Amino acid sequence: MIRRNSLSAALLVLGAGFTTQALAHNPMCECKAVDAEQIQCTGGFSDGSGAPGVTLDVIGYDETILVPGKLGADSTLTFKKPAAEFYVLFDAGPGHVVEIDQADIQAP
Amino acid sequence: MSLFIAEKPGSALSRFWHKWRFHINILLLLVPLGFMPKYFADAALFRGDTGLGEREIGELQVGPWSVRLAELRNEAPRLDGPAGYMKNFNAALCSACRDQVKATYLRIGKPRSLRAAGVIFFGTPYRMGAMLPIPEKTKADAELWVTMEGWDGSMHQASIPLSQASPATLDWLNKQGGRP
Predict the structure, then answer these.
(1) What ipTM describes this predicted complex?
(2) pTM of the predicted structure, to 2 decimals
């Protein structure tokens, strides 16, 4: 009994120590080239939740939207690499965006 | 002969402990006292009693409006798990523009469009907060761009060098050794 009490006390102290962080959920997005033609982007939030249905647009440097898309049920979207220069915009609402420049997309 | 074996007298420390252990527990009440200065400093910071943040950056003119900026903490960016390093900024709108400004955004580097204007400030116009991601490859001469959107649809932008906005962040970037 004493052991159980001290265990719960230790857990309580640990829990209290961690509550101050990780309350925010910042948008995250990662893109990688799966082959020479295709790029796959995965969206999510820093609290570990996924982002199914969130808008992900591929936009040219001239601000034209090359690929308007939405993330699938698995929070990913695969699209064909545009010929023009582009960046990827993960858009979960105003102020909740992530931009990924084509230069930051890893080659396969 | 007694059926019970008399307990051997322990060491002096053991006897002291057995005699006083319940009284010594009262000392545990003193433990929280050590944390109180930090607790009250944080409470004052978040209430705004000690100003907009730990380090005031100053007033920034953005078109017809202006905004007062501050670093919430005068320290290097903190790691927020997989989302990367984050830095908290606070802002207060000028008294004349509180009714006119719909949204205020913050970004490192000039925004490509209003859609990608960066993170949004949330909270009351008197004290808004934003959590800005700081990429590890940010250049030392980077600029912080403030984008303000009015209810009338107008948009105004202004910038401030990162070295001026957050010297602590710049020190941190320099220590990273300019990662590619």
Answers:
(1) 0.73
(2) 0.80
